[in-house]
Every structure is written in structure tokens, then in C-alpha cells.
Design a protein that fits this description.
This protein is mostly beta strands and 361 residues long. It has one helix at 71-80; strands at residues 2-3, 18-19, 45-46, 59-61, 83-86, 93-96, 101-102, 110-122, 130-133, 153-162, 178-181, 184-193, 209-212, 220-223, 226-228, 236-237, 243-246, 250-253, 256-258, 261-262, 283-287, 291-295, 298-300, 303-304, 311-315, 321-325, 328-330, 344-345, 352-355, 358-360. It has one domain (2-360).
Length: 361
Amino acid sequence: MRFLPFLLLAACAGPEDTVDVDNPLSETDDGSPPAGHTEDLSCAVPESAGLADSSSPTTVVGDGSAASCTSEAVVAAVAGGGVITFDCGPDPVTITLEETAKIVNDTGPDIVLDGGGLVTLSGGGERRILYMNTCDADQVWTTDHCNDQDHPRLVVQNLTFVDGDSSSEEEYDGGGAVWVRGGQVRFVNTRFFRNECAETGPDVGGAGIRVFDQFEDRPVYVVNSTFGGGDGYGNRCSNGGGVSSIGVSWSIYNSLFSHNEAIGNGGNPAQDGTPGGGSGGAIYNDGNEMTLFTCGTVIEDNEVVQHGSAIFFVSNNHTGDVRLESSALRRNLGGSWYTQVPMISSHDDTPIDLVDTEIVE
């Protein structure tokens, strides 16, 4: 079954200037999926979503050899803040972290983590990889309104996250690879492979990324990025196999979500006798006054138990909206409660605008 343009409205990108985004992970030599897809679907990227300047780093991890790029060096560099780059030699390198790298909130306000297309950070199947929380006193409170402050402004770019696992986290659950609350964050030229978070729970999610509270409700930008991308590379969690958020908007450009799974069961709130979860194969959005915008993005071959084989989007106060432009939803499997569009679970009054977007069940 194919749906071609559903509603055709004016583009929502607005007058902002656009930028070219050089992507060192657009091709790979090891058979792993590239960052972003290779299809003839693409959109111009707004300037505010582009690469950060990392030409004058505050800290360089490594001294030119793979052996010098250690867990200890990464954790210390992230805690120190500023612009962080890597010098681990000419070949791709995987750094397995022995503890989660944590942002300290007064080390910015601008923090850049740039892997140069050669660095993979691994959680070793035991821990979350990257954490930022403006409301965590252990990471320093910098304002009296931690859930709506403009910093840190974190940019993660040219970097791969693999085998993160936050299943053992109790206070800040979800976010198998990356967990963020507050400030501002964007991801450019990133890849997320085989990350996991808790298998059940009504509102735990985001095997790749989990986000709360962004400054002035600005969107999280995701550009030229891949979540899964092939058999054996997918991410899995109770909800939100790729990304998950509460009350947060997303603007996703030229990215790929595939082979991710939402494996909980019982939904949210959990049905009697169930642990809850199982929604949002690729994307899980819950909360109030939020938007989801994708452009040039492919969401295919994801799977759920409960709702939203591609996208779960529930605005509790019925103010949110979804817009997919020059995108594709294909062969996402499972679930129910598709009130308007196949593979998208939402309230029946949620505006869902499909512009030049392909749907293949």
C-alpha cells in the first residue's frame, strides 16, 4: 500500500539560512551502515542544525596512537568541557568506556564532541555512554531554573555510539547510549548501533537517545544520522528503539531509522497484568506542546509490540503536531492504534502532515 502526498502545506523550515554538512561517515569501509541514508531523499539543513566549529579544540584525546585513546582520557575530556576532538591515529578506533562520560554543566557554555568520523565510543554492553543533566546537582547546578536554561549547548558530531546499555540505571532510566536533560543538544553525522535500555516499563525509552527539557522548547536537531541501519545493528528498548523524549520537539534531517525495536508490552499506562511499554519502533514522543518534523528521513523495518511501529506521538494536552517532508515510512511492523496514518500512533485530532512522503506497508 502506498500513500503519496497526503497534505501539501507550506514548508516549515522558515527563512533561516541553510548550510552544507560535510559527512565523513557517508561511506564506510567495514560494511557498517553509513551515517544517514544513501537514497535520493534529502533536504537542506538549517544553519542552526549544522556542524559546530571544532578547528580550535580545548582538549585533544590521544597523542596520535590508538593506544593513547583511553576510557580515562575520554571521561576526563568530557568532564572538562569545551571543544573535544580526537587524535587516535589514521584508522578507525573503538574506545570502550569503563564509566559513563558525564558533562559538567559549568564547563561550557558550548561543548562539542567531535569524533572526526574515525571514533566509536562503546558502552561495552554494560553502561550508558554519554550523560548530560542540568538538574543533577552532582554535575553542578548553574541556574535556579535548571529545566529551562540555555546551556550547556552540546553538539555531538562525526561519532559512533555502540553497545551502550542503561538497563541497570534506576534514577535516570532510558537513554541506552545518550541521556540528556536541559540546555540544548544536537547530533550531526552520528551513528547508533546495538544500544539498549530497560526491556519493560510504560515510559522508559530511547535505546539511542533519551531527551528531556530543552531551552525554550527548542527542537533537538538530528542530521545525517543512523539508528540501526541494518540487520544486527538495531537498537532496542521498552519504548523508542531509536529515540525517546518527554515534552521535547525533534527536527530530523536526512537520517535513517531501521531495524530498531520497542520490546516492552502493555503500553502507557500499562495495561493490567503487564509491565508496560512496547511503543515507538523508531521514535517515541510523549508530553505536551511538542512537534516532530522529519525531512529527507527514512524510517523502515522497525518493530513494536504495542503501538507506533514507526512513530509513537502522544500529546497529552492535544497541542502537538507531526510533519514528515520528503521522507519515507516502509515496512514497520506490529502494534495497533493507527488512527490516521499507518505506522504512526497518535490521537485522532493530532495534525499529521505528509508532504511528498512515501508510505509502504
